[in-house]
Amino acid sequence: MDRPHRTDIAVRASGLAKAYPGGVLALDRLDCTIGGDEFAVILGPSGAGKSTFLRCINRLIEPTGGRIELQGEDITHVSGRALQRVRGRVGMIFQQFHLSPRLSVLDNVLAGRLRFARRPWWILASILRRFPRSEREIAYGCLERIGIAELAFKRADALSGGQQQRVAIARALAQEPDLILADEPVASLDPASARLVMDTLAQIHQTQGIPVVVNLHQVDLGRTYGQRIIGMARGRMVFDGPPDALDQDAVQRIYGTPPRPGKASPAVPVPTVVAALETARA
Ligand SMILES: Nc1ncnc2c1ncn2[C@@H]1O[C@H](COP(=O)(O)OP(=O)(O)OP(=O)(O)O)[C@@H](O)[C@H]1O
Ligand SMILES: [Mg+2]
Q1: Is residue 53 part of a domain?
Q2: From atom 18 of ligand 1, which residue's Cα is the shortest distance away?
């Protein structure tokens, strides 16, 4: 698998705004640049706009103001095939994994290869689950790199939450992404599985050189894994610095009051490439 093309800047948000119908201003002229080699953790209270920010980056939602660039390319208002290409370039990890439960682990990872599909034969191949050998080898290699190759032929719904999330990371890796975004990837997991999943994200950042941005609620995990901490509140950045600089004052600035340890927020369902694949198969 080729190393994806890298640039110094993965993401640049300038004056980024998102007002949802009904008037909620989830992002309030946010300025934020993520470097091409960063492992950044975004912390912030519920409703701060963390998920909205990530979804603007992979354009699951469209900003209502400002500008968002992915590796220097303005993607603020892309649509159609250009939008599909943007989503293909960004690996997205969700709190609830978003795997296809009845499919094998390997088939789930193969869904990450869809961005390289030469239609229409690939669509037919995916429906019949007869992927080319070379693609299956790439998908298997992603599982090996994450250390879960022995799960390749198990059904996704037979796995623990932590295993499922690592499969989701393998699927993102199979996309050969320019960037990985993870929206509360450990909120549904026990502490040991949470660490394993965070270790996996840290490992692919280090070994593959892929920039990673993770939304977290757990300040302690953010301190442990983040090379850079971004604190958000009310749709704006209120802290930006290394984990060492995240003292009590900074935590108070982000949360208002100290957060309760281990707090998890409710998941918000969003469409995924796998869900799209399921729909295509139905
Ligand atoms: N689809 C939507 N329609 C209307 N308002 C929304 C929508 N999605 C999010 N919001 C609102 O936008 C604000 C930011 O939401 P967002 O989900 O980005 O916050 P968050 O920091 O991810 O919170 P959490 O930690 O609870 O996941 C909140 O006030 C939320 O209620
Ligand atoms: Mg959220």
Answers
A1: yes
A2: 49
Ligand nearest to the CA of 64: 1
Instruction: Give yes or no for residue 18 CB within 6 A of ligand 1.
Output: no
Q: What is the CATH number of the domain that holds 98?
A: 3.40.50.300
pTM of the model: 0.88
Between CA 74 and CA 9 the distance in angstroms is 13
CA 96 – CA 248 distance, rounded (Å)? 31
Q: Is residue 4 part of a domain?
A: no
Q: Are 75 and 67 contacting, i.e. CB atoms less than 8 angstroms apart?
A: no
Does the beta carbon of 48 lie inside 6 Å of ligand 1?
A: yes
Q: Tens digits of per-residue pLDDT, 214-260? A: 999 999 999 999 999 999 999 999 999 999 999 999 999 999 965 55
Q: What is the pLDDT of residues 115-131, one digit of tens each?
A: 887 666 666 666 666 77
Encode pLDDT of 88-104 as tens digits. Answer: 999 999 999 999 999 99
Closest protein CA for atom 7 of ligand 1: 20
Ligand nearest to the CA of 61: 1
Q: Is 50 in the pocket of ligand 1 (CB under 6 A)?
A: yes
> Residue 14 falls within a domain, yes or no?
yes
